């Protein structure tokens, strides 16, 4: 839409956009900065700025294009609000995507930790099982050695007992033979008589 030629106050208002600075103190201050004829003054109240604002308002109200300017500023404000909503929706979508990504990373970290924990437990169980098997094999070997020693001891004891039995039996046999011989000797001695001279 073509904007008709306006006074300096209207051009300033349109350049500010969105109609938010319509004769506000900030808008008047901006208009003062745009005026090169403005003299440097201290921080005191400047009534000229208020007068210029009132003059600009009168120019706008008396202009045949005032409604067009106000309509244009309203349209600009609506456009700006729509842009802000689009921007807000975009930031909301980005925040949702970031939250979703954070949840995905957290889930992956938990899943990885669970896998590592399961692997660690499996390794520990395997180590304990291997340790138990080694302990059992060692105990079996010790038992086998003890059994072998016991068998050997029993064999040695049996051999000693058999040797002792044989010795005693031989001794008994020897004593019997000696007794028999003595008996025979006695009998011979009794039966023998010396010749008479």
TrEMBL record:
Residues 1-31 form the signal peptide. InterPro entries: ATAD3_N (IPR021911). Pfam families: ATAD3_N. Its main location: mitochondrion. GO terms for molecular function: ATP binding; zinc ion binding. It comes from the Eukaryota. One of its GO terms (biological process) is mitochondrion organization. One of its GO terms (cellular component) is mitochondrial membrane. Residues 124-178 form a coiled coil. The keyword Membrane applies. The keyword Membrane applies. Keywords: ATP-binding, Coiled coil, Membrane, Mitochondrion, Mitochondrion inner membrane, Nucleotide-binding, Signal. Residues 34-184 form the ATPase family AAA domain. It is found in: Mitochondrion membrane. This is ATPase family AAA domain-containing protein. The lineage of its organism: Eukaryota, Viridiplantae, Chlorophyta, core chlorophytes, Chlorophyceae.
């Amino acid at each position: 839409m073509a904007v008709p030629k306006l006074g300096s106050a209207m051009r300033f208002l349109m350049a500010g956009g969105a109609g938010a600075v319509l004769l506000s103190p900030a808008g008047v201050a901006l208009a003062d900065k745009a005026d090169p004829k403005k003299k440097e003054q201290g921080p005191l109240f400047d009534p000229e700025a208020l007068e210029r604002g009132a003059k600009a308002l009168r120019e706008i109200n008396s202009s045949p294009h005032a409604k067009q300017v106000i309509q244009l500023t309203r349209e600009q404000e609506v456009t700006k609000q729509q842009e802000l909503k689009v921007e807000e929706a975009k930031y909301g979508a980005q925040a949702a995507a970031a939250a979703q990504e954070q949840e995905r990373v957290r889930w992956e970290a938990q899943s990885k930790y669970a896998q590592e924990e399961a692997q660690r437990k499996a390794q520990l169980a395997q180590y304990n099982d291997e340790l138990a098997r080694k302990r059992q094999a060692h105990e079996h070997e010790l038992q086998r050695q003890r059994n072998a020693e016991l068998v050997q001891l029993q064999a040695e004891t049996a051999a000693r007992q058999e040797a002792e039995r044989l010795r005693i039996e031989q001794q008994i046999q020897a004593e019997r033979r000696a007794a028999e011989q003595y008996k025979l000797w006695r009998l011979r001695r009794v039966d023998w008589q010396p010749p008479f001279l």
